[in-house]
Amino acid sequence: MAHVIHAEGLTKSFGSTRALDGLDLTVEPGQVHGFLGPNGAGKSTTIRVLLGLLRKDGGRVDVLGGHPWRDAVALHRRLAYVPGDVHLWPNLSGGEAIDVLGRLRGGLDTARRDELVERFQLDPTKRCSAYSKGNRQKVALVAGLAADVELYLLDEPTSGLDPLMETVFQEVVRELRAAGGTVLLSSHILAEAEALCDAVSIIRDGRVVETGTLAQLRHLTRTRLEVTTREPLDDLGSVAGIHGLKISDGGRTARIEVEAEGLGAVVHLLGTRDVISLTSTPPSLEELFLRHYGEELGTLAVAASGNGSSR
Amino acid sequence: MSTLTGTWHLVRLALRRDRVVLPVWVAAVAGLAWGVVASYQGTLLTEADRVATATFSAGSPLARVFDGPASGTSLGAMALVEGWKILAILTALMAAQTVVRHTRQDEETGRAELLGSAAVGRHARLVAALVVALGASLAVGAVSAVAIAAPSGLGWAGAWAVGMAAAGMGGVFAAAAAVAAQVFSTARAANAAAAACLGGAFLLRAIGDVTGEVTDGGVVVRSAWPSWLSPYGWGQQVRPYAEDNWWIAWLFVALTVALVVIAFVLADRRDIGPGMVPAPAGPARAAASLGSPFGLAWRLQRGVLLVWLAGLAVFGAVFGSLGDSVETYLADNEPMRAMLQSLAPGGDPVDVYYVLTMAIIGVAAGGYVVQGLLRMRAEEVAGRVEPVLAAAVDRRRWLASHVAIVAGGTALVLLTAGLAAGLSYGAASGRWAEGVGDLLAAAAVQVPAALALGGFVVAVFGVLPRWAGPITWFALAAALVMGQLGKLFELPQWLLDVSPFTHVPLVPAEPFDATPVLWLSAVAIALAAVGFAAFRHRDLAIGA
Fold first, then answer.
1. A151 and A58, same structural domain?
2. Is residue A21 less than 8 Å (CB to CB) from chain B?
3. Among A292, A288, A253, A294, CA closest to A273
4. Are residues A258 and A170 located together in one domain of the fold?
5. pLDDT tens digit string along A173-226?
6. Chain A window 197-236: which residues touch B at a Cβ cutoff of 8 Å?
7. pLDDT digits (tens, 9 = 90+) for A2-34
8. Interface pTM (ipTM) of the complex?
9. Is the residue at A63 inside a domain?
10. Would you place residue A292 in the very low, low, confident or very high pLDDT band (cuts 50, 70, 90)?
11. Which of A32, A37, A74, B71 could disulfide-link A203, Cβ–Cβ 3.0 to 4.6 Å?
């Protein structure tokens, strides 16, 4: 089967704001694909274009082999959507809202619905107006995840959930993947993405700046090594691809960050120095993410300190 | 007092939040009060006219039910007997809703918690809400008094007296709403309870006024004791421009204080958040009927439809039953007769009265059309359309569900009002067949005009969604003004022709003409088609 989602050069503007600026995104069948970026980067806009709720200004986009705007209804029977900001009818009960949304999509598996209501510990007899944010989120999660479909579009689906429910959510997503479903999971919770995703795309200012499997992405960043040896390590700095070298303990303990390309040479050199201990930390998703947003953080920090000193 | 810390800040916050809505209420009430006085000054020119009208008001049980006790033949007194329902009902609703908005609604949405965590005393929110509502009520009273006295030259004493009565209504219902806000856990229920109290107050004095006795040569009604149990009745017993009973102010003050004390006692015995009556649990599963876009739309639309259906049926029944007494009244009132005759030469004046009545009901049904169709925009803005259209629901089908319900509802509302008018005319006059046939026909010809307005609403919803609310309510208000006052202000015909209601055939005063009806239907369909096409191609507003 071809790609489940394939977008190329997607653009969308709201007035003078350019929300999507040439976005490329490919999601393969059977993947849980993380879609990462801070608020305002264009995650929700992308998902709404994929749903045909917003009309793209330019570019190409395919969802399940169809056209999201033209074939919206046919496609929506084959996918489920969980919004991050759930608005429900105040005078309907949670159970009614779940059934309405499920039936409008073409029916839902009542056994699965009841099971999810149970697992998410939702009281379906409460009026939607009486639900907390987390409980409204659970209504949308049950309605979406109880669907037996090919594609799940989850837009920050766990906002407002407590850690226990977050665990339940992760279990359910793994079950969906095991059953052959494809998931696009937009999130800014990196731990969640790291725990669930096979592949991620990082979005910034309306374009995808990095995409690939987690293994591929890790390849792009540095691994942190902390090593203690019997022989001195003074010449470690001469190996290509090494950063932030810090040597202590008379040249026998070193902390370094190594680019993927330099790892072989480093290990080779360490082999000749009689290693006592070695810890290696793979790059976290957070570091991947900060690689793309680091300069923004830097600017914010400068601005903050600037403010501080002026008062 | 520590329980009141922060009250002043909360008052300012409430005024900031209500900076548009409260001035609009005050201006609307005062403007309507001015309008009633002006229309009385324009129509009741001689003492003979006034005596005829006052005799009718005092003698007709229906006039006593709806307008209250007649208080003589002074122009100010007569105008304010008629105008009191506007002043009383609107001021009471304004005050009650203001209190609920700043108490129960804040608790429901969780804003109260945020405020409660700040340096804000336990009673500060309730006190602030009451301060704002009472202030607004006093403003309504004062501005209305000026609007009544200044342009008309009727004198200030009666105007201040009725202003006091209006402010008193506001105070009592602000306090009643404060009690309801402690008892019920949703703003909706608290507002409904306050409105039910208002309905009860209206009913109580209606009984007192109907069972009262006519005195002073048939132009004054002395109400029976039930009127004195109702704050709505107290306002009428002030009898502005006749007796100016200022001592009644103490009744308003006493009841307001008593209710406020009850509200504070209740507030001390409960936590922030839940009311004393918990919201009832709903079904765990949806009924089978909720499974389609139409089923969902019906669930969202039925409440509005039922309210309008009941409201206009009562309205129709009242007007229908007056037909018989209108005949008698017109026999003695030559200027009125001539005025009606000029609208439809050759028509029977009573028939013209029915044409005018049905024109009002037609525009009122336009209010249902606008409110019903704007529900779609409300759903869109609240973000509730998004999950529906993200399911397998075609946009046209979603739109068609709402449009079909409102279109069918419009026909149902108008025909029910016409039938109610016909039946009550039949009951009053004994001429059943004539009444039901004529009045049903008069109501039916309004349907295409109301639907043409509906087509306009759908078109605006599709093309200019952001402006849908203001544009369509303005269109309805314009249609109302043109229909009622167009001739009076001598507006040019081309402008009057813009309103669909101008084109409604004057059935039963004149024979039915199919041409305008067909044109109005065609316009309704064409405008709706524009709306459908535009909605299909536009972005959805994303919920806030």
1. yes
2. no
3. A253
4. no
5. 999 999 999 999 998 888 888 889 999 999 988 999 889 888 787 777 778 888
6. none
7. 899 999 999 999 988 999 999 999 999 999 999
8. 0.80
9. yes
10. confident
11. A37
Tokens 């067949």 label which residue?
Answer: B433
The dihedral through the CA atoms of A153, A157, A163, A165 has a sign that is negative
Instruction: Tell the residue number behind the tokens 């239907």, with chain if given.
Output: B521
d(CA B459, CA B468): 9
B237-259: average pLDDT = 96
Q: What are the φ and ψ backbone dihedral angles of A276, each rounded to 5 degrees?
A: -95, -50
- For A14, the enclosing helix (H) or strand (E) is strand A5-14
Residues A254 and A147 in one domain: no
Reported as a pLDDT band with limits 50, 70 and 90, residue A295 is: low
**What is the CA angle A298-A301-A305, rounded to 5?**
140
What kind and span of H or E run contains A185? strand A182-187
Integer-rounded Cα Rg, in Å, for chain B is 25
Chain A residue with minimal CA distance to B535? A53
- Region B340-344: mean pLDDT is 75
In a domain, A97, yes or no: yes
Of A276-290, B117-131, B151-165, the one with minimum mean pLDDT is A276-290
- B415 half-sphere exposure, CB direction, 13 A CA radius: 8
A160 and A101 within one domain: yes
Q: What does A103-118 look like in DSSP terms, one character per residue?
A: HHTT---HHHHHHHHH
Distance in angstroms (rounded) separating the CA atoms of residues A171 and B369? 48
Amino acid code (one letter) for B505: P
Judge if A251 and A275 occupy the same domain. Answer: yes
How do beta strands A79-82 and A182-187 pair? unpaired
DSSP class of residue B543 equals P
CATH at residue A20: 3.40.50.300
Displacement of CA B418 from its chain's centroid (Å)? 20
CB-CB under 8 Å, A96 with B279 = no
A199-204/A32-36 β-pairing = parallel
> Considering only CB atoms, which chain B residues are within 8 Å of A104?
291-293, 296, 388, 391-393
- CATH of residue A265's domain is 3.30.70.100
Please compute the mean of the pLDDT values over residues B306-330 and round it to a whole number: 81
Residue-range definition of the domain harbouring residue A73: 5-218
Q: What is the Cα–Cα distance from B105 to B102, expressed in whole angstroms?
A: 6
Asked, for residue A299, whether it belongs to a domain, the answer is no
Q: Are residues A22 and A67 in the same domain?
A: yes
Burial level of B137, CB count in 10 A (0-12/13-18/19+)?
A: buried
Q: Pull the structure tokens for residue B104.
A: 């129960």
> What is the identity of the amino acid at B30?
A
Q: Is the peptide bond before B349 cis (omega within 30 degrees of 0)?
A: no
On whether any CB of chain B is under 8 Å from the CB of A114, the answer is: no
Give A-chain residues touching B383 at CB under 8 angstroms.
Answer: 83, 85, 87
Kindly determine whether residue B285 and residue A81, on different chains, have CB atoms separated by under 8 Å.
no
The number of residues in chain B equals 544
Q: Does A57 lie at the interface with B, CB-CB under 8 angstroms?
A: no
* Gap from A262 CA to chain B (nearest CA, Å): 48
pLDDT tens across A215-256, in order? 787 777 778 888 999 988 888 888 888 888 888 888 888 888
> B96 and B191 in contact (C-beta within 8 Å)?
yes
Last residue of a domain, one of A201, A218, A235: A218
Q: Which residue in chain B has the smallest CA separation from A53?
A: B540
The terminus-to-terminus CA distance of chain A in angstroms comes to 61
pTM flag (> 0.90): no
Residue A58, sorted as left (phi over 0), alpha (psi -120 to 50) or beta, turns out to be beta
A-B Cβ pairs (cutoff 8 Å, strict)? 116
In angstroms, rounded to a whole number, what is the distance separating the alpha carbons of residues A196 and A183? 10
Name every residue whose Cβ is closer than 8 Å to that of residue B302 and which is 6 or more positions away in sequence: none
> How many domains, in total, are found in chain A?
2
- Whether residue A298 lies inside any domain: the answer is no
